[in-house]
Each structure stands twice: as C-alpha cells, then as structure tokens.
Design goal:
Elements lengths: L13 H11 L5 H5 L1 E3 L3 E3 L32 E6 L4 H12 L5 E6 L5 H4 L9 E6 L3 H15 L8 E3 L5 H5 L4 H14 L6 E2 L1 E4 L1 H5 L4 H20 L5 H6 L1 E7 L3 H21 L11 E5 L12 H15 L3 E3 L10 H16 L14 H23 L3 H6 L2 H18 L40 H10 L1
Parallel strand pairs: 3-4, 3-11, 4-5, 5-6, 6-7, 8-9, 9-10, 10-11
Antiparallel strand pairs: 1-2
C-alpha cells in the first residue's frame, strides 16, 4: 500500500481552486464564462470535488441478487419490439430475435390478435414480456388473461409488464380517468398472484419523446403517481399494492451524465414517495424500463442515429435500467439491418464493453452525485407547485401540462433549426450527399389532449427533406 505522504502536495479545497481559476480568467466573469446550463435549469460547474458529495450518497443495487450462480453482478434485459400483422411471421421473428441476443419482447397489440400463435414456442419463464396496447386497454387485458388461462401459465412463469396506466391512457384517447382507475384496480386483483408481472406502468417516456426536459419528465411523472395513488385508495388499493403492481418506464436522451443522474434521481424519489406513504421499499425492488429517445433521433442521415443509440443505451445501463429498449427510428417500419443493429447494441455493451461487471460504476462521482442532488431539489420544488395548482389531473384537464411540454419542444426545435444547438450529422458535420441516408418526412399533427413523439430536428427536416 502506498503511503499517502508519498504525494507531498499541499491540500486545497474547492474554493481555492475556484480562486485560482478566477485569477487565470484575467477579469472575465466566472459564471458567464465557465458555468453552463443543463435543461436550462441546472448549473454545471467547471469543477467538482468531494465537498460536493451529499452525506447520504451510496452505491445502488438496481436489482435483486441473481439466484443463478456464475452470472455477472449487473443484469438487464434487451427489449425488441414487434407489431403483429401476420401472426405466423411475427412468431418466427420473435423466435429469431430471442435466439440472437434479445431476452425481452415488447408486443404492440390491439387485443384481437391470436396471442397463442404469436408466442408459440416462446418459453416465457426465461424472458420478459411487455404488452403495449394499440387500442382500448380492456381488450388487451382480456387477451392476456385468456392466453394465460388457455396455456395454464403459472405465476412464476410470467415476467414483464403492461405499458399502460390510468393516466397514460388520457394522452392516447378521450377516456375517463376514474373509469381507468377502476380498470387498474380490477387488474391489480386479477394479476395479484403474478409477483414478477406488473399490470400497469408509470410512463414518463412520453414526456421525453414529446420534447420535455429531464426535470419536467420526473416531476410530471411523480405528479401522475401521486394522482393515481390517491384515487386507487378509494378503490381499496393500498400504496403498498400500487408499488407492487407498477413498473416504471423512462427514456434517455443525448445528455450522457445528466440522463444517468435523472434515472438515479427518479429511483430515489420513487422510494421517498413510497416512504411518505408509509411504505419502506428497497430501490432494487423497482422495475425500470428505459428506452432510447425518439426526440433525439433524426430523419436527416439516419446513420448518425446509431451513435446516439449507443451512448443513450450506456446512459440507461449506468442509470440503473432493468430493461433496455433500443429503438431504431420509425421503429415499426425499420429495416432488418436497423433492427439488428439496435438489438446488438445491448450485447456489445455487455460482451465487449463489460458494463455488466460492476453494479453501479458512477457511484461516488462528484459530478453525477451533484447532479442527482440538484435534480431532486428542482423536482421536489416543481412538484410542490404542481400540487398547489390542483395536482396533475387538474393541470392535465386545463392543458397546462401540454402547454409546458410543447413550449419546451418548440424552444429546442428552434435552436436546432438555427444551428444554435448542434446535432452531428444534421446541422453540423453533415454526411456528403452520396453517403447520407435520409428518412421519409411526414407532417406532424397532435390533438389537444395528446403529447405525441416527435424529434428535435423536426423543423429542420421539414425544410430540408420536403424540398428534396
């Protein structure tokens, strides 16, 4: 062991470093020159030290210890999407994906498909199944329950979630919140024996994919959770039952360290919310699904998206996701090559980058821990204001939430259009015409109650691709 006195350097604190920097700036303003903003709200300092660490920082466990010996300490599921049109063909594609790197599938269903044929030969006990409703959720639930009964699937043989909640449904169709709560309460009871399957999911990815910044995503999501918990109590669904029956779905964008910090702060805040409701839950009991962002992708030179998908997937892993959903642009109509590359990113990060060898590599990072602390502070302050304004549902009905997210989206899109925000391959370092691979542009329409996925590059695409 090296004796510490070997390093004969005088000790210095953060303030002394700042004073040294200020001297080197030769009169330039420290704040204006070196402090930048994340999401327009968080100050990013030019340096951090151990003085910035909170007393309570600790290394996370993002999941329970594996029951199987010899597995890596960090485990996540690799999710691939399917949109069944030809059920037999879809089944073949699912089997192929599971044999080539996938260990979780997200099936987008209307509720009328033959689930037995789609999942024929799939060993459900070894994978995670995520069901995404494409129509009335009640039809999907009936479809799943009929499939479970027809195959007599035991509770221990089903893992995954339904990507739906009473609040997320309000953005998809003109539905009634209290009717959705009744449906959710019914599903809590019907799936009570399935301890590893979550019949509902809090979805904060919809905010990110529609243009909201990281702070907005988290506090609006927590506002949703509070709204649902209050209403579920009237249906005899306790806070403990809510947390036992909910998965959590987020997406990550281009800001690498802030996105890691956002996910970790989100997990901490959920644990604290449960504590405020009288429930002590360990962080590793929460099931977090994380996808790459629709908003950060671009139709201009689609090949550039491959780089974005990779470091977004890294953010998801380091931030603590239990399932990684790498989405190629225009996921439903993506080419076979695009789908294969997206599916392989998780495998490369595991098998070649060894991100599964350490549980929480960013634990103790001065920068990340500081961001987590700042995100928590901002989120709690804004959540308190949301509650003072009547809560999440009141703000949804008045469309204040929509106005907030759309305002943030338009601001980002304008910055990209004017090249004040750099997007590699889009408005900077563009591929030469013979190398560029552009997507097909379609106009964007959104009903007043919707928050639809779009892209930061939408305005620029409208100018460039429509002309082409």
């Amino acid at each position: 062991m090296t004796n510490e006195s070997f390093y004969n350097f005088p000790k210095s604190n953060k303030q002394e470093w700042i004073e040294k920097v200020q001297k080197d700036l030769k009169g330039k303003d420290f704040k204006e020159t070196l402090i930048t903003k994340v999401w327009g709200e968080l100050d990013v300092m030019p340096l951090y030290s151990s003085e910035d660490l909170a007393p309570s920082n600790y290394s996370f466990r993002f999941h329970e210890k594996t029951k199987l010996p010899g597995l890596a300490p960090r485990i996540w599921n690799n999710v691939v999407s399917f949109y069944p049109e030809d059920e037999k063909k879809c089944n073949q594609e699912i089997i192929y994906a599971l044999e080539n790197g996938a260990d979780a599938i997200a099936i987008h269903l209307s509720g009328e498909e033959n689930l037995n044929l789609i999942l024929k030969g799939v060993l459900t006990e070894f994978i995670h199944l995520y069901f995404v409703p494409q129509g009335p959720p009640k039809l999907l639930y009936e479809q799943i329950l009929e499939w479970i009964e027809s195959l007599q699937i035991k509770p221990t043989m089903l893992q995954g979630a339904v990507i739906w909640s009473p609040t997320s449904d309000l953005f998809d169709r003109e539905s009634e919140f209290l009717e959705n709560i009744e449906l959710g309460a019914e599903m809590v009871n019907k799936f009570s024996a399935f301890r590893e399957f979550f019949p509902m999911t809090l979805d904060i990815a919809k905010y990110a994919d529609s243009g909201a910044n990281g702070i907005q995503q988290v506090y609006l999501g927590l506002g949703e959770m509070i709204e649902m918990m209050d209403s579920f109590i009237s249906k005899a669904v306790t806070p403990a039952m809510v947390f036992d029956n909910f998965a959590f779905y987020a997406s990550v964008g281009e800001l690498f360290f802030p996105e890691i910090s956002k996910l970790k702060a989100f997990r901490i805040l959920l644990v604290e919310l449960a504590g405020n409701m009288g429930q002590e839950i360990p962080p590793e009991s929460l099931h977090l699904i994380v996808s790459t962002s629709d908003f950060s992708n671009s139709l201009i030179d689609k090949n550039s998206n491959l780089i974005r998908l990779t470091y977004e997937a890294m953010s998801a892993i380091l931030g603590g996701s239990n399932s990684i959903w790498v989405k190629p642009i225009n996921e439903k109509s993506a080419s076979v090559l695009e789908k294969r590359i997206a599916r392989n990113i998780s495998s490369i990060l595991k098998e070649e980058s060894f991100l599964d060898k350490v549980i929480d590599p960013t634990a103790g990072s001065f920068y990340v821990e500081s961001l987590i602390k700042e995100i928590k502070t901002k989120v709690l302050r804004k959540l308190e204001l949301l509650e003072d304004e009547g809560g999440w549902l009141e703000n949804f009905n008045s469309r204040k939430i929509h106005k907030l997210v759309r305002g943030e989206r338009e601001k980002v899109q304008e910055l990209v259009l004017k090249s004040e925000s750099i997007k590699v391959g889009v408005n900077k370092y563009e591929a030469k015409s013979e190398l560029a691979s552009n997507g097909s542009f379609e106009g964007f329409e959104e009903k007043d109650y919707e928050l639809k996925p779009t892209r930061a590059t939408y305005l620029l695409e409208r100018n460039k691709l429509k002309k082409a």
